[in-house]
Design goal:
alpha+beta; 11 helices; 19 strands; disordered N terminus
């Protein structure tokens, strides 16, 4: 299986707003329906993504049309891709929209200096081409307008929330022309570090596809490109190489591989029925999974650490999930489990691509927001005891043949 997005008539796109949420008319102008504060944040974030989409599309099309992308993208120290879209989208979401409502903290993937106050606009050392300035200014004004609509009587809630933002999840795909596999991921976590609300939004599908949810408020909404023929046993994986563990797992469970890019995109594919499970023993990060976890759980599915799943912990247990809090150290580090890579290790470790694999010796060696314990994500149809028992048995058999990489 390969994932290619097929444009469809929007009237055939499934919106699930009536299944698990109240209607938009129930939200009042003074802060929303009672007990709907997280929902309102999700709805505002989704509308922000709508506003950002024309700008994202323009930058994406410009990169695809250019033979020299040096002014629009670059490679970071850890060999991952970075574009002006990453920097601009993160800045507009965190500084112009969510940065002034008093949240506990905001954690974004990108560490970069931004100047969008006056031309020349700069994203780190990348100069934003003049053609994008009017779009950026329009999006910035839109963010400021939206920010004024966020109710200010929910300050007590906002003070407990940590926001995780991946502005363009799947930047590699963004650069190489697989834009339908990219997503904007925004997650909200409570004071205990639990993912409680989130939005995952694909701006480069036609029309854009997305999901939003807050389980505690009974809210889930989406516009998705549902699979017309759903694979009976499809394992969502990355486009690239997979670990021997995943290969053994697919063979044991008789699963077909469904490759695609971007963690957020694969979570939406799970909701679309394009795969029955997304199991990963290789690293993603908190900003990849916070918003997606909230959406999947609000829809009746589960997302937990692979280590917890193997240990038999219930998906809803406190320790089964990653901890989504601002921190200088990795709050889910488990000694003797995780292998170091250039992506998950601190720069001081000095690890380069091609260096021998070794276990992380201490939490000081790993980045604070790397997901080092793998993940198991299942849509609501798979969230039954029988199916989870079968998957667990397959995971244990595969682990005996080839232990998970946990990198």
């Amino acid at each position: 299986f390969t994932h290619t997005f097929t444009s469809r008539n929007p009237t055939r796109m499934m919106s699930q707003s009536n299944r698990m949420s109240t209607t938009s008319e129930d939200v009042s102008s003074d802060g929303g329906a009672e007990g709907s504060s997280l929902r309102v944040l999700c709805e505002v974030t989704k509308r922000a993504c709508d506003i950002l989409t024309p700008m994202i599309v323009s930058i994406y099309n410009s990169i695809q049309a250019s033979d020299a992308n040096g002014q629009k993208s670059k490679v970071k120290v850890d060999d991952s891709a970075f574009t002006i879209a990453d920097g601009v989208v993160q800045h507009l979401l965190t500084k112009e929209l969510l940065g002034n409502i008093g949240v506990r903290a905001i954690v974004g993937e990108e560490e970069c200096d931004i100047n969008l106050s006056r031309p020349p606009f700069l994203v780190d050392d990348l100069v934003v081409p003049d053609e994008f300035i009017p779009m950026i200014e329009k999006a910035r004004d839109g963010m400021k307008e939206l920010a004024r609509e966020i109710p200010r009587d929910d300050v007590a809630l906002y003070k407990t929330l940590t926001v995780f933002v991946d502005p363009i999840d799947g930047t590699k795909e963004f650069v190489i022309g697989k834009g339908d596999q990219c997503s904007v991921c925004v997650g909200f976590a409570d004071s205990d570090g639990r993912a409680v609300a989130g939005v995952v939004y694909r701006p480069l599908t036609e029309p854009p596809t997305w999901a939003a949810g807050a389980k505690s408020e009974g809210y889930f909404d989406s516009v998705l490109n549902d699979a017309e023929t759903k694979p009976q046993k499809g394992l969502l994986t990355s486009n690239g190489s997979i670990s021997p563990f995943l290969a053994a797992l697919m063979e044991d469970l008789g699963m077909d591989r469904v490759p695609s890019g971007g963690a957020g995109n694969k979570m939406l594919m799970l909701l679309e029925g394009r795969g029955t499970a997304y199991i990963q023993d290789r690293g993603v990060s908190r900003w990849d999974t916070c918003g997606a976890q909230a959406c999947i759980e609000a829809s009746g599915g589960v997302l937990c650490k692979l280590t917890s799943f193997i240990d038999g912990e219930n998906a809803g247990d406190e320790n089964s999930s990653y901890t989504y809090l601002q921190s200088n150290t990795n709050l889910d580090f488990e000694e003797g489990i995780s292998n170091l890579t250039p992506y998950n290790c601190q720069p001081s470790v000095g690890l380069k691509r091609g260096d021998p694999v070794r276990l992380a010796k201490s939490v000081e060696e790993v980045k604070p927001y790397s997901n080092l314990c793998g993940l198991v994500a299942l849509a609501h149809e798979e969230n039954t005891q029988d199916r989870m028992d079968a998957i667990l048995e397959g995971i244990k058999k595969a682990s005996n043949l080839s232990p998970p990489s946990y990198d």
